[in-house]
Amino acid sequence: MVLELVTHVQDVSGIDVAAKNKWRWDWITNTPLEECISKAKEDGTAWCSICRKTIKYGSSGKKALFKHVDSPPHQASKRSIQTNYNIGGYLKGAEQPGDHVRPVVPVNQRATQLEAMVLGFVAENDLPFTITSGLLDLMKAGAKDKKALGEVKLTRQTASYKMVHGVSKTLTDSLAERFNQTLFS
Ligand SMILES: [Zn+2]
């Protein structure tokens, strides 16, 4: 049986006939429930789009809905959706919908996907859009050495350490080496 949802605010008294606590739109309107809870076309029943399951609120009303969104299973599903669908999750290699089937995607479409990924990354991290072309150059440069790219790991701590002790030391060393070669040898 397919559960149908009530798609817009309307009188649902024809649906909630036996329910002691009948559905009220103000339970969810302008609350965090709005993003995941919908009224189903079934007596005393709502639908959570995150857990993809029904919630019976007929006996305890909106308390049942709040209890559901506070429940550990709901919180866990919500977290897994956030990690799987944000760019960070995508970049870390979280499983994407459709990962099991890899269709042959034409190059122009893959380029569009890459563009979307870069723009998504920029937007999600509040970076200025002026960074996008530089970011693309960086990706292209990195892609030339796939083996090294696979080995690169930079956490926040190592990044700041290497910035101070790594990059500047490498620059100083190569500068010193060049001086040695040109001026003093
Ligand atoms: Zn849920």
Descriptive report:
The longest helix has 27 residues, at about 155-180. This protein has 7 helices and 3 strands; from the N terminus they run βββααααααα. A 3-stranded antiparallel β-sheet has the order 1-2-3, covered by helices on one side. The protein has helices at about 60-70, 70-85, 85-90, 105-125, 130-145, 145-150, 155-180; strands spanning about 35-40, 45-50, 55. The termini are far apart. The protein has about 180 residues and is mainly α. It binds zinc ion (ZN). Zinc ion binds near residues 51 and 68.
Q: What structural category characterises the helix and strand content? A: mainly alpha
| Separation, N- and C-terminal Cα atoms | 85 Å
Strand order of the largest sheet: 1-2-3
Query: How much strand content do the residues show?
Result: 5-15%
Q: What is the helix fraction of residues, given as a range? A: 40-55%
- The beta-strand count equals 3
The distinct bound ligands, ions and cofactors come out as:
zinc ion
Unreliable stretches, pLDDT < 50, 5 or more residues? 97-102
Q: Count of helices?
A: 7
